[in-house]
User: Fold this.
Amino acid sequence: MYVEMRKLVNTRSSRWLLSSMALLGMLMIAVFVVVSATRGEPINVSMMLAALALPAGIGAPIISILAVTSDWQHRDAIKFFVLQPKRGVLLLAKYLAVATFALGIILLVCAVAFVASAGFSAIAEYELVLGDLAKSLWLLTCVTVIGTISGAAVASALLSTPIAIVFVLFQSFVFDSLIGLFAGNATPFLQSATLSNVLTEGGNAIAAISSAAIWIIVPCVIGVWRNRTRDVV
Assistant:
């Protein structure tokens, strides 16, 4: 698992993605502070934490895709399969690595939110309030962990970095928005965001289970089968 976690941060693509996430996070912080100052509102730590859930939610699935598919793109799978012939063990190591990395992202985002909030409050002499930290932390955790697991599952099923990234972005920003035009009352059962929405806001548990089955469990099962049977050339 250590090797898989190291590959999450030492490749060119992962570094660019992490840098992009950091830049987006800084932009979100700047916008949040400017809006709060313009309205004369105190710096709310929980609101800043919720705002930082956006870059974490976007970047975490893509990081997991890179982790799962990178070996297949560069034919490094041959080397790793020689060292560890049990392909299921390697795939499990990737899953554990991205799950651990997701927890690391959550801790980092929390630290950045607290430091940024305290810093701006001290420099600009704005009032600092904690707000509903538990709710914001739960939102961040659900968005990051579910996004990471879903991205890893889809990536293991498709085994192609560009296709998996396009698929996840389409699923999140296009499919979830358009499916309501056709599915009617069945929409929550088909949307990929239903699981996280139900966990953070409450709702139909059956719809959440359906969402998890479609977007996580089924791709994961397909991914395990494909990783065990795909030829390495």
About this structure: Residues 2-229 form one domain. The mean pLDDT is 81.
